[in-house]
Amino acid sequence: MKTTLLVDTESLAIMDAHFTTKKAYDGHIGLQVFRRNAEDLQALLADKMYSWSNLREACREASTRPVIKHCEQNALKKAHNVRIDDEVYNQRSMSETVFAMLKDDGDEIRSRSWHGQFRELTRKCIVHNLAQAAS
């Protein structure tokens, strides 16, 4: 099960989740998640697996700053990566913190069906958000 989360880096709340069993391209998934939440975002932080020009263009059209590293295939893309503000980009690690918190329960996904796995992961996200709101 491939899981993509949209996380508020200040509150660590999960704003949106996308689950799939297909080997979908991360950029396509990122674009879907972005379009569902575009009006709420000031910046979109993602790793280079989400480096896709269509996603960057959609962000700019919605007045959202895309902070996504480029896959370094040439000198121009390396130069673009150097220009990214490390302090802003490093906030992306907060989403990794949320993933670690979700996995920290020690519970593995028990269901074998896709629908069961979807329900389990959705429950984990809801419980996480409730725990963050309570603390």
Task: Note the main attributes of this structure.
single chain, 135 residues, alpha+beta, two-stranded parallel sheet, 6 helices, 49% helix
Domains (count): 1
Helix content: 40-55%
Low-confidence stretches: none
Q: Could you tell me the mean pLDDT? A: 88
Round the Cα radius of gyration to an integer and report it: 16 Å
Query: Approximately how much beta-strand content do the residues carry?
Result: 15-25%
What is the succession of H and E elements? EEHEHEHHHH
Q: How many β-strands, per DSSP? A: 4
Number of continuous helical runs: 6
Spatial strand arrangement across the major sheet: 1-2
Shape: globular
Ends distance? 29 Å
Largest sheet: 2 strands, antiparallel
Which secondary-structure class do the elements indicate? alpha+beta
Report on this structure.
This protein is an alpha+beta fold. It has one domain (2-134). It has 6 helices and 4 strands; from the N terminus they run ββαβαβαααα. The strands form 2 sheets. Strands 1-2 form a two-stranded antiparallel sheet. Helix 2 links the parallel strand 3 (43-46) and strand 4.
How does the SSE layout of this entry go?
Layout lengths: L1 E6 L6 E7 L5 H12 L5 E4 L6 H9 L3 E4 L6 H9 L2 H4 L3 H11 L10 H21 L1
Parallel strand pairs: 3-4
Antiparallel strand pairs: 1-2
Helix pairs in contact: 1-2
